[in-house]
Amino acid sequence: MFGLMQDWPLLCHRIIDHAATQHAARPVISRSVEGPIHSTTYAEVRTRALKLAQRLDRDGIKPGDRVATMAWNTWRHLEAWYGILGIGAIYHTVNPRLFPDQIAWIVNHAEDRVMMTDLTFLPLLESLADRLPTIERYVVLTDAAHMPATPLKNAVPYEEWIAETDGDFAWKQFDENTAAGMCYTSGTTGNPKGVLYSHRSNVLHAFMASLPDSKGISSRDVVLPVVPLFHANCWSLAFSTPLTGAAMIMPGAKLDGPSVYELMDRYKVTFTAGVPPVWMMLLDHMEKNGLKLPHLKRIVIGGSASPRAMTQTFQDKYGVEVIHAWGMTEMSPLGSLCSMKPEYASLSGDARLDVQVKQGHPPFGVEMKITDDNGKRLPWDGKTFGRLKVRGPAVARRYFKDDTEILDDEGFFDTGDVATMDPQGYMQVTDRSKDVIKSGGEWISSIDLENLAVAHPKVAEAAVIGVQHSKWGERPLLIVVLKKGQTAAKDEILGFMQGKIAKWWLPDDVAFVDEIPHTATGKIQKTALRDRFKDYRLPSAAA
Amino acid sequence: MFGLMQDWPLLCHRIIDHAATQHAARPVISRSVEGPIHSTTYAEVRTRALKLAQRLDRDGIKPGDRVATMAWNTWRHLEAWYGILGIGAIYHTVNPRLFPDQIAWIVNHAEDRVMMTDLTFLPLLESLADRLPTIERYVVLTDAAHMPATPLKNAVPYEEWIAETDGDFAWKQFDENTAAGMCYTSGTTGNPKGVLYSHRSNVLHAFMASLPDSKGISSRDVVLPVVPLFHANCWSLAFSTPLTGAAMIMPGAKLDGPSVYELMDRYKVTFTAGVPPVWMMLLDHMEKNGLKLPHLKRIVIGGSASPRAMTQTFQDKYGVEVIHAWGMTEMSPLGSLCSMKPEYASLSGDARLDVQVKQGHPPFGVEMKITDDNGKRLPWDGKTFGRLKVRGPAVARRYFKDDTEILDDEGFFDTGDVATMDPQGYMQVTDRSKDVIKSGGEWISSIDLENLAVAHPKVAEAAVIGVQHSKWGERPLLIVVLKKGQTAAKDEILGFMQGKIAKWWLPDDVAFVDEIPHTATGKIQKTALRDRFKDYRLPSAAA
User: Fold this and answer.
1) Which residue has the higher pLDDT, B218 or B443?
2) Running DSSP on this structure, what letter comes out for residue A236?
3) I need a labelling partner for A514 at 20 to 30 A (CA). Which of A448, B40, B505, B525 fits?
4) SS percent in chain B: helix, strand, coil, step 5
5) What is the pLDDT of residues B175-231, one digit of tens each?
């Protein structure tokens, strides 16, 4: 028997409808790419998103068509998302920081029909345009006054383009499982893979992300999304901020310390979210100039592990609560947030930081398990680590144009991370599963060894990879870049590590190199290292 | 094109799964009906709910079957909800405070197959049993030691009943639109109507109810649901509390001031929710004994309008934030909560109370409009009042076994309330639509007049009804019960009201009566008054 409740599909554009009705005058303030600060409201964002939707519709963009955006966080980019998805088309965020080859590959794979972009990226796109045959029109997110001459096909300034509509238009209605957005993963191996979010998954994810133990945003918050809209679905901020009615401060193209600080200070930002490098710049700026952020209450740090010292500085020196978060593009993207459950809430000092280096616990709507290579569930003891697998309504079940089965027989997606779960349900990433070293049936975390090695005063960067070993299968090799002008012997480094880890975790050898290769997004490229060291003979290896 | 996200139906039992996994040891503490305090955990609640589900399944309860519960808030009642819905059957909460005839009517209309009940209600059910032919078995929520002799059919103590299972059982899986629960409205006219909640509506409603601007519950909260599970789906607390991982303190049968205070004080309750009469008893007890509740942070007051003085006392004297709430059984039930948007957040004193007497603003997932009798939308100016209509995934579209269309052509449900909406989106109920007085095409709020009349020092209770008038259609008649021993003339009362309301709102006459009739749930029975005064001739009426 079915319930007798209303049929009200979970459509993303209902979120901006809600914001425009219930929080009509709430400010959406942006540092424009042209320079000046721009101020608008949710009501106005919705009105303009509808004009954009009307224009796309008139231009023949159909449900299911992909419209690319390569743009900074501004009100126009936000309008673009809602306008695109509001006619059943798909916003496809393209990360401008990828290698040009990857960008071309992604746009062609997605078959994007329109490219909406900022002035910043015109040179890049002009150099690539020949290789982007599916793009029928470039819409530049600016007005006629700022529009430069460009050879890009059918290029038009955004403001003129949407001005040619009368705004007499209603959102399209459709099934809540309709695709709304797309984002490609920038993996360290192989081609990027497209994750296709649905209206339903985005709305449910926004609910999960807004709960008090997640981001806990209220209408009284002033939210500054430092994380770009083109990065992993913007950590839901484009949805959860209007859903909760918080004000939105958009940093545009300037993510340096002084620029971010200026916005936070001026608009009394209470909540922000972004990756560690941005916070490093902000902290540096504040430190050097003796500045404070009295209004900032909470900061979500994710994308990569939040350094312990950063968490400590934000909390102890600036009185800002740090919420370490973890997720991935395939998870919409939030998987867990390190808010304090009552078991940990009264901890302080080092004991609190010991919890906060963990990636946290999943909200309702994300299920987690850790397993061994055979899929057997492992205990939640905070020590045993295994493959981290996840399930939920905002987790991918397949990639775009790819029939590969990516779920296990219980419907869980393998994150590629290796993690522990503690008895309170807190997850901590210990490694990537392809990087973990499998020695005699036991697993050694390459990340733990790297973190330990870089603590040595002479070490600038370290990477650990598994190298073939006749007896143990694999054994760890430590690859080290020394700080400028430093010299060190292998035993000096290994001696420093000894006693701080289990004896059998100690790397079998140390290789000193001038440079460690990185991906476009700054991750260590272990595949390249494994290639380079594939014939490396460990001193301990008999074979 | 559809998104490529996982198929993860919104099933209510996933909530207790989440709580049992992520908040396994969180306490669920109850004042048992037998007397002693009982303590359990979410993990244990889930384990026992599964045994209950297994037992129902073995007893032949099928998907869609209704299982009645007439019980206080205890861990066993909570287990019953999850156990029943976890096999696709329907928990049907029966309000023991209804008239026996209504209870019999409801149980028969629902065709309940099992009745799960507390020791408290055995005499009532024994007196009714002959009239409840669909009930095949009575399960008494107690253990063998406390089980009295009873003639009720197949009566069995709950603990023995579930002990006869091995617990090797998994939840059933089904469509998220499957019915999960049922609650009858206790209207002032006609037969009660059954509202049939789905798994989807309960889960979505729990998300809405948990947002920071709604109840804002975190895992660090200790929640005491004073509102009974049998009252309007318990204001979502049976779902939103485990969903957020908060601890749960269940008051059992004792809702008097000292008993509620004892639990709040002993278990450091931070959040509670209930109707004004309970808070009156609590405040009275605290006042008389000079007590405080230093841990209590927020209190949701709903069911009927929260008196201004009560809000003020909680806030000013006890430092507890009051959140006035409004909803109805047909809305799962929460429609709006009066948390502070930034426009109002800095108000204090009377200005703050002026906002807090409003019923608040809807979360994402509830849409509101006010209209005139022709369905035309009215402005949100805080003054114009009209019929309040609502739409959303947790709002009823039909009643159980009733084909009557209850939605308008835009899919909105008419709440039967008359309300204003202010420019910030705050709703305030001004009347019931059947009680509003329609005078010359304009509406007069009977509630406003009643509130004003009872402010007169000689008036004990007041009711205002519309009486036929040849010129104006209807004019207000004020019906007054004077305080014991008092006498008053009509002009004395009307003179007191004059100048405090628009001139044309002033009642045309005053009728003094000994008693005003009430419904079982304490509401003024205006139908009876209208019957009694249907031939009343107003002095102003020409005809």
Assistant:
1) B218
2) G
3) A448
4) 30, 25, 45
5) 999 999 999 997 656 789 999 999 999 999 999 999 999 999 999 999 999 999 999
CATH of the domain at A96: 3.40.50.12780
Q: Active-site residue A492, yes or no?
A: no
Please give the share of chain B, as a percent, with pLDDT higher than 70.
99
- Cβ-defined contact of A213 to B413 (cutoff 8 Å): no
Q: How confident is the model at residue B521 (pLDDT cuts 50, 70, 90)?
A: low
Consecutive sets of 10 residues in chain A, 543 residues long: mean pLDDT of each? 98 98 98 98 98 98 98 98 98 94 96 98 98 98 98 98 96 98 81 96 98 98 97 97 98 97 98 94 97 97 89 97 97 98 96 96 98 96 96 98 96 96 96 89 89 92 92 92 94 94 93 89 85 88 54
CA atoms of A511 and A529, how far apart (whole Å): 11
Task: From B207, B214, B212, B180, select the one nearest B196 (Cα to Cα).
Answer: B180
pLDDT digits (tens, 9 = 90+) for B446-486: 988 998 999 999 999 999 999 998 888 899 999 999 999 99
> Considering B186, B204, B222, which residue would you say is the last residue of a domain?
B204
Complex confidence, ipTM: 0.93
Q: What letter represents residue B201's amino acid? A: S
Q: Tell me the C-alpha distance between B539 and B543, whole Å.
A: 10
Residue A190 sits at the vertex; the CA angle it makes with A187 and A195, to the nearest 5 degrees, is 55
Structure tokens at B538: 């107003």
> How many structural domains are present in chain B?
2
* Alpha carbon distance, N-terminus to C-terminus of chain A: 67
Nearest to A479 by CA among A457, A521, A519, A446: A446
Is B192:B106 a contact under the CB 8 Å cutoff? yes
pLDDT value for A543: 45
Residue contact B4–A342, C-beta within 8 A = no
Question: In 3D, which of A123, A194, A181 has the Cα closest to residue A152?
Answer: A123
Q: Which two tokens stand for residue A436?
A: 């973990």
B 351-390 residues with CB < 8 A to A: 361-362, 364-365, 367
Q: Which of A254, A438, A458, A490 is catalytic?
A: A438
Q: Is A498 on the interface with B (CB under 8 A)?
A: no
Distance, CA of B308 to CA of B461 (rounded, Å): 18
User: What is A109-143 written as a DSSP string?
Assistant: HHT-SEEEE-GGGHHHHHHHGGG-TT--EEEESS-
Q: Which of B187, B204, B221 is the last residue of a domain?
A: B204
pLDDT at position B189: 62
How distant is the Cα of A64 from the closest Cα of chain B, in angstroms? 5
In a domain, A50, yes or no: yes
Within-domain flag for B119: yes
Per-residue pLDDT band at B542 (split at 50, 70, 90): low
Confidence category of residue B541, pLDDT binned at 50, 70, 90:
low
What does the pLDDT look like over B404-418, one tens digit per residue?
A: 999 999 999 999 999
Peptide bond into A148 cis (omega under 30): no
Given an 8 Å threshold on Cβ–Cβ distance, is B179 in contact with A2? yes
Domain annotation covers residue A344: no
Q: Is B13 helix (H, G, I), strand (E, B) or coil?
A: helix
Contact B241, B248 (CB under 8 A): yes
Which chain B residues are within 8 Å of A269, Cβ to Cβ? none
SS3 A400: coil
Residue B444 C-alpha from the chain's centroid: 26
The answer to whether the beta carbons of residues B343 and B424 sit under 8 Å apart is yes
Both structure tokens of B445: 């709020």
As given in the structure block, the two tokens for residue A1 are: 């028997």
Identify whether B142 is part of a domain. yes
Parent domain of A518: 436-541
Whole-Å CA distances, A413 to B249, B317, B358: 36, 52, 46
B277 near A CB under 8 A? no
